[in-house]
Specification:
8 helices, Beta-Lactamase, 5 strands, alpha+beta
Length: 243
């Protein structure tokens, strides 16, 4: 399979990941696994996905335990190929850690794990933070110029997919929070109705009664409302949403 076929296959699989995964964590795990195969099945590569927010870097997914260990060691040194890729927005290729002099202390550890070639490819996420794909290979000079082009093309699509997944996740969380707020409001409205009936008062007066009880007991109005509703019905109040 040539490079163009590899890239087309990887992008198609990336689109499948977007459609099949329901959580950001699962998407990232599958992304790391797919990234490790982006150069083709004949090239043995490990991959980690680094995310950096407010200068704190962490490996959010990896294709193997070795990739996670090497990522974490890099964070300990405070710099290295993937961190530099995030900072500069440019790909960093290391043909052989034994002869590359940029991060000698880190590279000595990498060589001790019998990995000799590395590549850090940035994932441009805009306001969502900085990220990178970290590739590790046991064979020196694995990441040729054509491999770099292939990885960068994949990373461009992966970044877009990750941004979309994050956006959908935020929307889902917002919708969940909105639903919770509306259900809370339903409970309060029902409690107000109960208080109005029991005290023969107006809606405003009923809410004042709830608010006074809330202040006196140092609990939320919602909690006071839930107690009142629970005293009338065995079932909690529900907001019905059309589907």
């Amino acid at each position: 399979m040539n490079d163009e076929q590899n890239e087309a296959t990887a992008i198609a699989r990336l689109q499948d990941l977007m459609l099949s995964n329901e959580s950001v964590d699962q998407f990232l795990d599958d992304l790391a696994s797919l990234s490790s195969r982006v150069l083709g099945d004949s090239v043995e590569v490990q991959c980690g996905v680094t995310y950096r927010h407010r200068n704190l870097a962490t490996t959010v997914a990896c294709s193997s335990d070795e990739a996670r260990v090497l990522d974490e060691i890099q964070y300990g040194f405070g710099d290295g190929p993937c961190l530099h890729a995030i900072s500069t927005g440019s790909t960093v290729v290391v043909d052989d850690v034994r002869t590359d002099g940029r991060w000698p202390d880190y590279f000595e550890v990498v060589a001790g794990h019998e990995f000799f070639a590395m590549m850090g490819v940035p994932l441009v996420l805009g306001p969502d933070g900085g990220a990178a794909l970290n590739f590790y290979a046991a064979k020196p000079q694995t990441f040729t110029s054509s491999a770099q082009v292939l990885a960068e093309g994949f990373a461009l699509q992966a970044a877009k997919a990750l941004q979309m997944v994050l956006r959908v996740s935020r929307h889902a969380n917002t919708s969940s929070n909105l639903k919770a707020a509306m259900e809370s409001r339903t409970t309060i409205d029902i409690a107000i109705g109960i208080v109005m009936g029991q005290n023969r008062c107006t809606q405003a007066e009923a809410y004042t009664i709830l608010n006074r009880a809330s202040n006196a007991q140092n609990v939320k109005v919602r909690d006071i409302a839930q107690r009142i509703v629970a005293g009338i019905s065995a079932e909690p109040a529900r907001t019905h949403f059309s589907t």
